[in-house]
Q: What sequence folds into this?
């Protein structure tokens, strides 16, 4: 299931720490980057490499919100709706996104293009509202127009 | 005035190591490893009065000196899990002035004789993590990290460890659990991390901003540093300003030099859209809310770790969230309660159940279905959490709730009597 590259990268990660178990979270990040989500057999493979039970690795993969244990859309939007963003209009923008994507937060649009998640504070309150796309792209000072543009772009890529 | 921490505001490309060096960068670390004994470094930080910038304000040098003698290896972990709603100072340091933070880590590591230090950075900061990786690689190439540093026998490497979405990991023992590849749930204290920390070894955990102050102390002297700020809160502080102000952002000023009025109305350009100031959360979502109308003197208290205490609040990490007069305080408490309900790690029953019930009660009152008894019940549930959990998250969750019921009780009662929220009618 895991590519040979992924396996050797995980082994390198394990060597970076005094205790190989510390490589679990970076390994989950790495596999999720490669596969898009974390299927059962990937959890099993990581457990075997790091020397833990599948249950322990699954526990970690389900405790932290950035790991996906189910397949999701081609893109993921983590939209911040905490107080500092909400003071600058995020609640209405989230409603707009839900309407535009045709699904509530926590779900994927019918065309499979975008999974919408409500994020907890993304640490960008000086440029609120903010969101994180595909775990890497930070967008800030959002407006309805800007959201529409980004969604269109994501649908077409 | 010259910025001491947010130096990127004065020198735009200070994230490049050669620019940082040109402006004195890494000379403090050079001085520490070549001219000072490790204990002398710790003593200098003690004399400087540097206190932790993560919110608790514990003296950093004292923390370092808690490590038991002769027990090795020992670890330094930089807490870069900045997740408190309203806080965004460490991100700016890591993205735009990363070397000052890395140099601070190197000096702190030398002081405690740690040879492998870690940065625990929240997963939602991919760009900051990249900036750190790049800064570490540059520092390695220049001989500031690695083996035989600057011709001495001292060796140090720094590993960036990414979290994956959990506010609780900002709590130091939950952070250690997470670093070890486990669920981010707090440990029972004592033993404290200084004695039994990462991999059960002596460990110091400091906030990013705290560590970024360390090079200043070694480079310019502890006595020079101690003169900045007030007697009890020394040095510069970054104030994160967000919410209904014209110019949100990070503002650096010495402790005790500016008031909330200066921050909001002068630096922040006042309240947006010509509205009036109604309420302030000075320490992010875990604040006791300030109602300036009840006592205007709170706006003029010069900000340090203790100056808001007489007004029933606290500065914490100085994450100042400002709200205008169109903001509903029940809604505010509902937002923070939902945050803490989501972020409770589930280990302690009072927090896990209590944050759930506070959120349900606030939903009910906000929607207009609440009763007057619900308001008292809310305070009662908060009291069932307070002081009954392993880590401060439980206590934090109650602060905006109990303080808003106290300061804005008529607003809660109005929701009951008018069957809903005045602000959304």
A:
């Amino acid at each position: 299931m895991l590519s040979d590259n992924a396996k050797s990268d995980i082994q390198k990660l394990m060597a970076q720490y005094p205790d190989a178990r510390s490589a679990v979270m970076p390994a989950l990040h790495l596999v999720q980057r490669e596969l898009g989500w974390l299927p059962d057999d990937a959890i099993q493979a990581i457990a075997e490499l790091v020397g833990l039970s599948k249950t322990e690795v699954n526990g970690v993969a389900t405790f932290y919100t950035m790991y996906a244990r189910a397949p999701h859309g081609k893109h993921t939007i983590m939209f911040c709706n905490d107080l500092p963003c909400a003071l600058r209009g995020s609640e209405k923008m989230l409603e707009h996104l839900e309407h535009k994507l045709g699904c509530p937060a926590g779900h994927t649009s019918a065309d499979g293009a975008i999974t919408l998640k409500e994020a907890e504070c993304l640490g960008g309150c000086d440029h609120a509202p903010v969101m994180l796309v595909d775990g890497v792209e930070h967008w800030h000072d959002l407006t309805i127009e800007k959201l529409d543009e980004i969604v269109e772009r994501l649908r077409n890529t | 005035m010259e910025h001491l921490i947010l130096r990127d505001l004065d020198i735009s490309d200070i994230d490049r190591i050669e620019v940082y060096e040109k402006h004195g960068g890494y000379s403090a670390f050079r001085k520490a490893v070549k001219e000072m004994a490790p204990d002398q470094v710790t003593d200098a930080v003690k004399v400087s009065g540097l206190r932790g910038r993560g919110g608790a304000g514990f003296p950093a040098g004292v923390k370092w000196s808690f490590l038991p003698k002769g027990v090795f290896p020992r670890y330094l972990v930089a807490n870069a899990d900045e997740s408190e709603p309203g806080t965004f100072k460490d991100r700016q340091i890591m993205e735009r002035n990363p070397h000052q933070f890395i140099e601070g880590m190197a000096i702190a590591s030398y002081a405690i004789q740690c040879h492998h230090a870690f940065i625990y950075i929240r997963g939602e900061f991919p760009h900051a993590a990249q900036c750190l990786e790049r800064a570490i690689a540059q520092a390695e190439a220049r001989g500031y990290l690695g083996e035989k540093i600057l011709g001495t026998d001292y060796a140090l490497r720094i590993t960036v460890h990414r979290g994956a979405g959990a506010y609780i990991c900002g709590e130091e023992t939950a952070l250690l659990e997470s670093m070890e590849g486990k669920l981010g749930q707090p440990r029972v204290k004592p033993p404290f991390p200084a004695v039994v920390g990462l991999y059960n070894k002596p460990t110091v955990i400091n906030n990013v901003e705290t560590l970024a102050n360390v090079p200043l102390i070694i480079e310019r002297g502890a006595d020079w540093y101690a003169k900045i700020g007030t007697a009890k809160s020394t040095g510069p502080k970054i104030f994160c300003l967000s919410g209904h102000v014209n110019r949100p952002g990070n503002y650096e000023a010495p402790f005790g030099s500016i008031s909330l009025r200066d921050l909001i109305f002068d630096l922040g350009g006042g309240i947006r859209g010509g509205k009036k100031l109604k309420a302030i959360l000075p320490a992010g979502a875990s604040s006791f809310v300030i109602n300036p109308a009840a006592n205007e003197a709170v706006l003029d208290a010069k900000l340090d770790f203790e100056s808001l205490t007489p007004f029933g609040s606290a500065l914490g990490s100085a994450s100042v969230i400002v709200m205008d007069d169109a903001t509903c305080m029940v809604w505010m408490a509902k937002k923070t309660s939902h945050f803490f309900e989501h972020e409770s790690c589930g280990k302690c029953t009072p927090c896990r159940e209590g944050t759930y019930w506070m959120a349900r009660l606030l939903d009910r009152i906000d929607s207009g279905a609440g009763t007057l008894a619900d308001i008292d019940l809310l305070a009662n549930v908060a009291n069932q959490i307070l002081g009954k959990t392993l880590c401060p998250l439980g206590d934090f969750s109650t602060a905006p709730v109990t303080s808003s019921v106290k300061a804005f009780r008529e607003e809660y009662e109005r929701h009951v009597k008018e069957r809903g929220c005045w602000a959304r009618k």
Observations:
- Strands of chain B lie at 75-80, 116-121, 157-162, 203-207, 236-243, 249-254, 277-285, 319-324.
- The mean pLDDT of chain B is 97.
